[in-house]
Give the backbone structure.
Amino acid sequence: MNWNTLVDPTLLALHLHDPDLRIVDARFVLTDPAAGRAGYAQSHLPHAAYADLNEDLADLSRVAAGEGRHPLPDEATFAARLGQWGIEPRHQVVVYDATDGSMAAARLWWMLRLLGHARVAVLDGGLAAWRGAGLPETADLPEPDPASPAYPGRFDRSQIVDAQAVAARLSESPGWLIDARAFERYSGQHEHVDRVAGHVPGAVNRPYADNVADGRFRDAQAIRMELLELLAQRGPHRADEVVLMCGSGVTACHQLLAFEHAGLPGAKLYPGSWSGWISDPARTIATS
């Protein structure tokens, strides 16, 4: 096993009993935060632990500090939770959610990569694809080990961009900042999540949903050609010059996964994203 972007359900099924495999269920529903954990308790992939977006992959106590709706947790706290899940640097990790990886498998995939863990992949199609293939599930709940060692490592902050860094680049030609939200939210036509509608001036829109079809990632070469065309339209910009954002730094991770799937590494993430940007009323916004 050496999977670092996506893994097919049937391939994962062949390795379910490999001692170096760790699986994490990251299902989450923004409108019903308890639904993911409840679904996991009913049935999940064998040996899978559960990661809660609000509790494990974010620190909601930092929301008031202007870091968006899902601020990154303290790295030591996150490393300790990885240890409880039995994840060590030598392990192959596979993360899944209900379907396409956007809520919130890709977020955990990115956070592990921030710690330097290369062997982590998202289950392509998630639980829906797993069930569609008739593969095994269980209701057995693994016991976390509170005495296990924390995962060694620190977040690579060079992969993270804050609001000040975004503001400093607003005079550059558009195309370096890509917003992964649906067009109606990006354009300001309809905003049902954040209190202010619109987007960061100069940001271009590529909805993360464009990367998938029927819940599975589209062909890597097709996505690559579309992304290269997007980067060439206004810049041109290289992939490693790109900053990705969304509403709160969750679906932007799905966009980053698409870049990696397409063989275009190096893009960075603005974790605060739109909800962090609008926390300061002095920052400019655009609608179109």
About this structure: The radius of gyration is 18 Å. Residues 190 and 250 are 19 Å apart (CA to CA). The longest strand covers residues 21-25.
